[in-house]
Structure formats: C-alpha cells, structure tokens
Design brief:
With 151 residues, the protein is an alpha+beta fold. It has one domain. 45% of the residues lie in helices and 17% in strands. It contains 3 helices and 3 strands, in the order αααβββ. The chain has a 3-stranded antiparallel beta sheet, covered by helices on one side. α2 runs antiparallel to α3. The longest helix has 44 residues. It is rod-shaped. The model has no long low-confidence stretch (mean pLDDT 88).
Length: 151
Amino acid sequence: MVRQSSKCAAPKRRRGAVAVEMALVLPIFCTMVFGIIEFGRGFMVSQLVTNAAREGTRRAIVDGSTNSDVTSAIQTYLNSACGVATADISITIAVTPATGNPANPTNSLASCASKDLITVTVSVPFNKVSLLTGNYLTGKNLTGKASMRHE
C-alpha cells in the first residue's frame, strides 16, 4: 500500500496564495519601477538643460552675437534633444561688466566689452518633460546655468 505524504496535499490548499501575494506586491513594484524611470528621465533632461545653457553661453561670448541668436540656439537645442516646446523654455541672459568696463543695464550682448561676465540661465518646467502624468512635481523647474567671460 502506497501512502501519500503531506507534501503533496499542501499545493491544493494554497492555490490562491500566489495570486493574492502578486496582487499585493505588484502595485508597489510597478510604482517603484516607474519612479526610477521618471527620476532617470528628470536627471537626463536636467543635464540637457545645463548643456543648453553652456552651449548658449559659448555662443554668447563670441563677438557679434546677439541675445536673439543665443535664445534661438538654446531653443533649437532643447527642442531637438528632448522635445521641449519653445514656449516652455525660460532663458535669462545677464551681463556683469568687468572692472573698468562700462555698465550694461540692458544685458545686451551686442554692447558687451572684453572680459564681461556673461551668465545664461535656462529653465524648463518638470511637468513639461516628464513621462508620467501627475501633479506631484507641478511647479518645479529643471534649471541649468553657465557663466563665461566675453572674448
């Protein structure tokens, strides 16, 4: 006579346990995975915004550059790199005169003198570049800033 062990009977009693465990763990796991993906996207776009500010500053320090040239170059770069709409990009160009140079109250690149410090700040709202919809970071901006001396 063959006896059945108690190990064979155990799976019949626990048939729904795996489904219940998955129902409890899967939402938490998916939330963590999507959070990691969203953080990675935010970090990537933040680096692109900083790079756009750096590229704009490089263009701004060359003689003959204008504010509109720099603004256009930054907008084109961000639009092609991460698909940000032109209207969503905030660009600020500040000119700090070097010692002995005349003041530049309009921050015009056309009237910059040699060794003036040019600072370009680029800002993009996070909710315009995020992959997931939601209001958890509404109002937060990704900002990049670069400063260089005019040639």
